[in-house]
Specification:
Two copies of one chain form a homodimer.
Chain A: H1 5-18, H2 21-30, H3 37-41, H4 48-60, E1 64-66, E2 75-77, H5 79-109, H6 112-120
Antiparallel strand pairs in A: 1-2
Chain lengths: 121, 121
Amino acid sequence: MPGTVADEERLDRAFAALADPVRRGIIARLSRGPATVNELAEPFDITLQAVSRHIAVLEQSGLVTRTRDAQRRPVHLDAAALEALTAWIDRYRLVHEQQFRRLDAVLKKAPQRNQGKEGIS
Amino acid sequence: MPGTVADEERLDRAFAALADPVRRGIIARLSRGPATVNELAEPFDITLQAVSRHIAVLEQSGLVTRTRDAQRRPVHLDAAALEALTAWIDRYRLVHEQQFRRLDAVLKKAPQRNQGKEGIS
């Protein structure tokens, strides 16, 4: 069931990258299209250096990429990397849902005893 | 666009909780049904105390809950909390996809110039 060490480390970095409101804000902005560091820094009340560090964390996590265009170097969102995270979460969310449905089916098959007890109280 | 401070802190804690392979392993196990700390510790080569600390992190993040059943105190997965994370990610993933589709439509509307250039080379 668990992935390779590289897979696990990628998930570690990606989830950790999303555990910060500034980095989530950057992801939200990039979902609307590529942007430069200056554009990304604009809505935040922190230094350009701090924004650059957040972008570096996102880059190391694979959630964003930067083109080598020396003039602008815009930052891009990697939607496939985001999808890998929802795939991980949904896998276990769906297993959990299935278990619930199975339990529900079992309870529906044998309701007599419980209903009898409830009738007494 | 950004949520309340409480929402943001909840996302911080939940994403940080998933940024660890042992905690993801615990989530995977709990997707199949509630389990005690001993049961959760079994597949891991770490102390029971370390597992308890991981469970405490997951509890604080809201991803798991513990019943007050003193005998067993099994740990349960909170599927709704997991869903909140996929909802956050998917929101921006879908915005990004829409932007791509719009760009694609624009490029399809005016293909003559680029095709002409390609024809020459």
